[in-house]
Amino acid sequence: MRHVDRRYVVTLTLLATATAILVLAQAELLASVLSTGAGLVLLIATIAARALLVWAGRVVTQREAASVKADLRKHLLRNSSGPTGELTTLVVKGLDAIEPYLAGYLPQLVVSVAVPLAVLARLSFADWGSALTIALTLPLIPVFAALVGMHTRDRTRRQWSAMAAVGGHFLDVVQGLSTLRLFGRAEAQARTVRAMAAAHADETIRTLRVAFLSALVLELVATLSVALVAVPVGLRLLHGGVTLQVALLVLLLAPEAYLPLRAAGAQFHASAEGLAVLEQAMKTTRPKPLAIQRRSPDLRRSSITFDHVEIHYPNRAEPALTDFNLQVAPGERVALIGPSGAGKSSLLAALLGEVHPSSGRILIADTDLRELDRTEWLRQLAWVPQRPTLFPGTVAENIALGAPEANVQAAAQAVGLNDLVDTDHPLSSGERQRVAVARAIARDSARMLLLDEPTSRLDNRTEETVLRATREWTRGRTALVVAHRPALLTEVDRVVELR
């Protein structure tokens, strides 16, 4: 994944240095024009150069932000193991929030170091008393900003968590809307979404309230600090203790010393959500497999052991699975039952390598699953998900996906799809489910079948056809079945309940 590289930091430093030089030159020339009338052309050129520098800085920072966002999206889509809804919210909406951090806060942070130092250096030669006042009051702004910023950070994290929860839950509800309507639960879920959206709105209002109050604090501190410099200089000018040009120089440079810090504080609030998103993006990644890539044991002769397995998804308080232990013998067919959310589908995802245990191990024979060559391991698996994905093309092409040598006609006939093999018209949910089952049993090289509620959308007659086909296919092979319907439980050797 592409991080903010050194070249970007060097570029920001050069831009900040040039900004500091132009700030000093503009103040010097403006003081000269106001006091003596000389240097107007140079002043106009300096102002134009400063505007050009601001434009160039915007171009550089916007391009860097766009590159980092694109790279993060690729990284998340390739490596994420988070829930689908939360991942979608993060990729589609969340990553846009890091632009104010990369293109706003970071550049301003560098400027807030370079410009005040340059101003202090210049004023120490022009009027050391004013320079001393600025040096004493300048730290007040970052101190107050840090105190308020810690509170803002916590508020923003809660706001992002609320938005991720709303987005993730809403996507899951939309995907399962037909099922919810079938069981009369659509209105209940609509109320849940409305409640979650209201909670997110409340968190957003609280976050904005803190941002507005903190802006008031920073403006007040900066204004009082400038007044502490301006009032003594004005009194000294009246009594002849300082020349007009020096007094003008002090009055012009003093606000410039505080302005970058005030802007950095404002940019911090704008970028706080981006920081929360970056933290989430770093968590929502698949743990790296162990460096060793061993040959996958033959599942016809190897047991599968879940050893104190815990699966914890990012951004969820409770683990999906806790301290789970199970041993599946070669050729054994095991059904997993339990309420929704007990971790049944997570177990199948762990075997597929889509998620990894946060603690514990999955052993194939005596080898940790993470040590196995994943491509070789997946060749031994046939998987039927709850919501199968079909691609444009005929039913035959979808069944043969990933297994060109498959006997498509036999697999289609086994699940009652032989009349639809050459068609490419839209399929019903039950037909799509049967295509997924046919795709699995067509993989003759697979040694283990993973079924995630394979008959949930089938009527009783079609369910019997599918069960007969899977019964034949699993003879002598290992099978792990997530089951809710009683008919599936008669096809297995053992039932394991998850709570």
TrEMBL record:
This is Thiol reductant ABC exporter CydD subunit. The chain crosses the membrane at residues 37-56, 102-125, 131-150, 210-231. Residues 299-498 form the ABC transporter domain. Gene3D superfamilies: ABC transporter type 1, transmembrane domain, P-loop containing nucleotide triphosphate hydrolases. Keywords: ATP-binding, Membrane, Nucleotide-binding, Transmembrane, Transmembrane helix. GO terms for molecular function: ABC-type transporter activity; ATP binding; ATP hydrolysis activity. GO terms for biological process: cysteine transport. One of its GO terms (cellular component) is plasma membrane. Residues 40-273 form the ABC transmembrane type-1 domain. It comes from Saccharothrix tamanrassetensis. InterPro entries: AAA+_ATPase, ABC1_TM_dom, ABC1_TM_sf, ABC_transporter-like_ATP-bd, ABC_transporter-like_CS, ABC_transptr_CydD, P-loop_NTPase, Type_1_exporter. It is a multi-pass membrane protein. It is found in: Cell membrane. The keyword Signal does not apply.
